Each structure stands twice: as structure tokens, then as C-alpha cells.
Amino acid sequence: MGVIRAIKQNEIDRLITLVTNAYPSFDATKEEVVQPFREQVAATIKEPGNSHFYGYYRDEQLLGIMRLYDYTVHWHGSNLLAGGVGSVAVDLLHKKEKIAKELITYFLRHYRNQGAHIAFLYSFRPDFYKRMGFGFGTEWHEYRVTPSTIPNGQGKERLTFLTEADIPDMLALHRRVTERTHGMIAATDQDLKRLFSMKQNRIVGYVNGHGLQGYMGFQYRNNHSKNDFHNDLHVNQWIAEEPAAHQAFFAFLRSQADQFQRIVFYVQDPEFHHLFDDPRNDTNNMIPPLSHEVRTTGIGLMVRILDAKRALSTSTIYPFGNVDATFTFEIRDTFLAENEQRFTITFTNGKPALRDFVDKAPVVRMDISDLSALLYGAVSLNTLLNYGKATISDAQWTQTLRALFPKAAFPVCDTFF
């Protein structure tokens, strides 16, 4: 066992070495890459704000790092404390020594002890974190369409390029959208500054008489090794408070047909292809028996409930159906021992209340990873039951259990960490 504590200023060089070795995309030979990162780490250690660097030490030697994020997530109508973790790195000479396990365990207990219900991360390997009890979150979809197939919108004259001076208005807009969108994490000033720090980013905003009502971020990317004029436009940020903002962005993108071969969207909406006359991408792939490929899909964000008993016994974590019933829940959690629990809850008009164990109550069994995805709204109870990822001891209570967990609001999260 090692010691985990906050990283100090005089340990930044060692931190950078760990990051360099753990992430091949971090090119330590380029000062324009290293120096901004060094400054960011130093500023974060000096004034942490909502993020903190922690290190794993053995005999005073720094062998692993992680960055923790204090977040507020809009969760089924309530604003809840949540924790995020990123930049997990382990010394190459000390892999397979359970250092990452100790870091993630510390992360989970840190936020559990603070009263948080939820933990988030972006996985480098989904199976690795699934075994740690994280469930799959919202999927990201990549659509690659020709500009001419984008809806012919209007209102392009209300678009303007944004700068860092517009961050307060962007932050206010993001918070308004967050307050009505399940799964969204409240953006911070640092989140939006990061958008502008990426030199290839361009950000346009939709402004009307009520101020900033939407913004869209995009980049140009060449798609031909021998033709500098063969480019795609990649849309990586899209926040809109009203339909008119969507229409203006559509008009702008459609007007780019003379310069870009494809408009590439990264979205979480699985129904996004209904916007286009021709949603096919540029692979020309056919999917059996007779379907055209329109998107590619990826799993990145993963979510974990930190205390199953506490989560299921409060009405803020899931919009339970109007059901009167008593169930015993057996939740498997092989990673966080204190969360492997067996408890009984009585629901009255869908309102949960913990009670003493009831021997004859039907028993619902599932893994914490699947429970986490269910409560997040990323998967339905019907799916878990149909594929055997959740079971109930008495089949005659299946329909009641389904009614208790109706399909929840689809989660959306545009925060990266």
C-alpha cells in the first residue's frame, strides 16, 4: 500500500514525466506542448478551483497521478455533487502493481465521503473500468454528411465569431441549458477557456434580442494527403437554447459546400440522422441485411453510483413509477466492498423508504455497473432484464418492477476531462 496525497509544486517535472510515458499523444519533445501543460498544472496546484492533482507515493517516490474534478450534474431534475477523474498515469516500471486500482479506490471513497452520489470518467479501456463497477454512459455518434444534405435553415445573419470576452455569456447560456438537460455537468470558466486555447478552434454564436442563444465550435481538417484544398469541417461543440439557433447554424454549415467535402458532427442524439435528406457517411458500407451506414458510435463516458443503498432510497436519483411494492436489492460490487449490499426498500406511490430486511420480498439482483447505467438513463430496465443483466427471484413481480423503473430521460454530457 502506498500513500495518496495532493501533488506539490516541486513535483511537477516528475508529473510531466509520468504523463509523457503514459500518453503517447503527449509529445514531450515539443516545448509548445509541454510549457502550456506545465503552466496549467502549476496554476491548478496553486489555486485548485474545481480540480486537484493527486499522487500515489511509495517510499516518497511519485509512482502514479490522477486529477480529480468537483462537478455539479443535473440529474433527473436535481443538481447533485459528482466527482470526475482524469489524467490517470502510472510509472511504466511499476505497472501491474495495483497502483491504478488504489488511485481509483481513493477517488471513489473521496467523493462518497463528501456525500456525492455519482462518479464519472472517460475510459481508455471500457472493460478495465467496467470491472471497477463503472457502467457505460451516453454514446457519441460521428456523422459525416455532405453540406448540401443539411437542412436549409435561416438566420445566418445573427451569427458572429466569439472570443474569450464572450465567456461570461457562454457560461450563462450553458448553465441555462444544463438546468433543463439530464446528465449535463455545469460548465466552468476553465472549461470554456479550454475551447479558446485550442488554436484550431473557431466558435460562432447566435445572438438575438435576448442575447447569446447558442454557440457552435468547429475545426478544419484536411482529408487528402496530396491536396491542401480537400477539407472537412468538424463540429465539436453545439449548444442552442432555441430552435432558431439550430436553424442559423444549419444555414451556416450548408453554405460551406464550396469549401468542404463533408461536415462531420459529433453528437449524442441517436435520432440525429432524421435531419438529413441523405444521412449516409463516406464509407459506402452496407450493413446486413440491407442497411446503409450513417454513423459510427463510440463509448467514452462511464458512470458509477457510489452508494447503491443511498441512491435507491432517495427519489432524486431516479424518476420511479407510481408503484406500491417492496423489493430486496442485491447489488454486486467486487471493487468497492462497502457498496456490495443487500437491503429492502418499500415504495409507496413510487416514493422509496428503507426498511428492515423482508424475507419474503422478491429479490432484484444486478451488478453495480448495470445499476449505474440504469439510474443514469443510459440503459432501460427492460434491456437489462431481457439480456439477463438484471434478475428477479419471483417472475410474477416482473411487470411491477418494470413499472417502477420506466424509461428515464436520455442523458447528455458535453464536458470533457
TrEMBL record:
GO BP of this protein: aminoglycoside antibiotic catabolic process
Pfam families: Acetyltransf_17, Acetyltransf_9, SCP2_2
Protein name according to UniProt: Predicted acetyltransferase
PROSITE patterns: GNAT
Domain N-acetyltransferase: 2-157
An MF annotation (GO) of this entry: aminoglycoside N-acetyltransferase activity
Domain of life assignment: Bacteria
Organism of this sequence: Laceyella tengchongensis
Positions of transmembrane segments: none
Alphabetized InterPro entries for the sequence: Acetyltransf_17, Acetyltransferase_Eis, Acyl_CoA_acyltransferase, Eis_dom, GNAT_dom, SCP2_sterol-bd_dom_sf
